[in-house]
Design brief:
The chain is α/β, with parallel strands linked by helices and 496 residues long. 35% of the residues lie in helices and 12% in strands. The chain has 2 domains: 17-109, no CATH class; 165-495, Alpha-Beta Complex (Spore Coat Polysaccharide Biosynthesis Protein SpsA, Chain A). The protein has helices at 17-20, 28-46, 72-88, 117-164, 202-214, 231-239, 282-285, 305-309, 352-355, 375-380, 383-397, 410-416, 443-448, 468-472, 486-495, and strands at 94-97, 106-109, 171-176, 190-196, 219-226, 247-252, 291-295, 299-301, 319-323, 366-374, 422-423, 451-453.
Length: 496
């Protein structure tokens, strides 16, 4: 390199160990030149003088034929001056090879007042590592928090199931939370309403839901219990009508829950309807609620559901029903039903197990088609377990009356809640509208009722029933056409 070069002298290339130990190094002059080159390269690279002459780098036998040999000083220079910088980075540490010291010792010093590049790089690497570790720890912590939260939610549900009946098979299928929550007396209060909806009675459930949401400003959430094949039909019906803004859950009822607990009774003349037993499993249907309302699908609500929800329950009572002996229900007499208003109409008092309960046969019965449940008390008393116990015993021993006055679900409830239930206002369950096709009540009384109940064989969507015009006011036609009013088909066929 010319000394006049404007860039300045460039450091000489550092020879490799293979260059120094080349087997056919040509001459002593070349060896000496190589030593000088090695020394100059080391000084240029490390900005420090190399002690000793270049010839001191060569061993005694390096001037003869054969491969060159390095002295201990040369080996020290090669080790400290050439290899180390390759390990730690060029020009990062100033090294002074102490040629001539025993064993080729090497002293390493750091330039004064200068933070070396290796220190900065190491700091950066450490900083990056720390940042990565912090991010990883935060990600793991967030994952564990989410997992813990989900586990607690699942554990809560499982605790409710196990503490009550240990039953699985009631699975939520859908949830629409987009409807605005309504303020109740300055507070947001959720009112769970449970309704069973079978495929052949789906129009009844739609009318009931429509009447409830239209007559209240409360924050109602509907728990619609149905069988697996009905969920899609129900969802499409709700989404295409003015009910698409309601808040609801569709819950699939697993019929396996009833295995060994119910049996067909030829005397009843109709098959078992699994969904009628959904009311027995309220704490599982509504796992996080403290209170809930259950009602059948053959009702129309004309009052504010909040009033029914606020029905006071006595301490220790898990439910409130409407007594069959109240003045409203007593106005109607059902032919062939026998003792329709007391326990003997539902239970076989000839059976020893029934007599052991010491329940008076003349005790007034109640209607389980509409009731308010204290789910906290229900869970505490394991009501579901008790109901299942009597269902199984009836299968084994036949404890129900042969002239059953009402639904097959009533006898277990009568036993479990004997003298252990509160009452609701009779106007919140004006029933027997389905007992006959004739009108049993005056139009004024029907208009004043808070809830109309078409219990009996004559349903308002059937061929004939009383006050079908009141029910049809709340009915929403099925957009899929799968469900239709039977009487309309009859009217159309008669006009042809």
């Amino acid at each position: 390199m010319s000394p006049t070069d404007p860039v300045g002298p460039r450091p000489l290339p550092v020879p490799s160990l293979g260059d120094l130990c080349f087997r056919s190094w040509p001459s002593a002059g070349a060896l000496s030149a190589g030593a000088e080159m090695l020394t100059a390269a080391a000084e240029s690279r490390h900005h420090a003088p190399v002690k000793g002459s270049p010839s001191a780098l060569l061993g005694a036998g390096s001037r003869g034929p054969g491969p060159p040999k390095l002295s201990s000083a040369g080996r020290a220079l090669l080790k400290c001056g050439l290899r180390a910088p390759r390990l730690h980075g060029d020009g990062l540490l100033a090294r002074t090879p102490a040629v001539g010291l025993p064993g080729g010792a090497c002293s390493v010093r750091r330039p004064r007042g200068l933070k070396t590049n290796i220190y900065i790089r190491q700091k950066r690497k450490m900083s990056f590592r720390k940042v990565n570790i912090v991010i990883l720890v935060l990600a793991v912590a967030l994952f564990l928090l989410v997992l813990h939260h989900n586990f607690l939610g699942l554990s809560s549900l499982l605790r409710n199931e196990v503490s009550d009946s240990g039953i699985v098979g009631l699975q939520p299928v859908d949830f629409i939370p987009n409807a605005p929550q309504r303020v109740v007396d300055g507070r947001e209060e959720e009112i769970p309403v449970v309704i069973a909806a079978s495929e052949d009675r789906l129009g009844g459930a739609i009318a009931a839901i429509n009447s409830i949401q239209h007559n209240t400003r409360s924050n109602v959430i509907f728990y619609i219990v149905t069988l697996n094949g009905t969920a899609d039909h129900l969802r499409s019906w709700l989404s295409s009508s003015n009910l698409k803004r309601i808040r609801y859950k569709i819950v699939n009822f697993d019929t396996k829950l009833l295995e060994g607990k119910v049996k067909e009774d030829p005397d009843q003349g109709e098959s078992i309807k699994p969904l009628t037993f959904a009311r027995f499993y309220l704490p599982i249907l509504v796992p996080r609620a403290k209170k809930a309302i259950y009602m059948d699908d053959d009702v129309i609500v004309q009052g504010d559901i909040l009033a029914l929800y606020n029905t006071p329950l006595k301490p220790g009572h898990a439910a409130a029903f409407s007594e069959d002996c109240d003045s409203t229900s007593a106005k109607v007499v059902i032919r062939g039903a026998g003792n329709q208003y007391n326990y003997i109409g539902y239970l076989d008092y000839k059976k020893e197990r029934i007599r052991e309960l010491s329940m008076k046969a003349s005790t007034c019965s109640f209607n389980p088609g509409v009731f308010v449940a204290n789910l906290t008390e229900w869970r505490r008393q394991n009501i579901t377990n008790q109901l299942e116990k009597w269902m199984k015993l009836n299968v084994e021993e036949g404890l129900y009356s042969r002239t059953l006055a009402g639904s097959i679900t009533t006898p277990p409830l009568l036993i479990v809640f004997y003298q252990q239930h509160s009452t609701i206002d009779p106007m919140w369950n004006v029933r027997h509208l389905g007992s006959s096709a004739g009108k049993r009540y005056s139009p004024q009384f029907v208009k004043a009722a808070k809830l109309l109940h078409w219990n009996g064989h004559f349903k308002p969507w059937g061929r004939t029933a009383s006050y079908t015009d009141v029910w049809e006011k709340w009915y929403i036609p099925d957009p899929t056409g799968k469900f239709s009013l039977i009487r309309r088909h009859v009217e159309i066929s008669n006009t042809k």
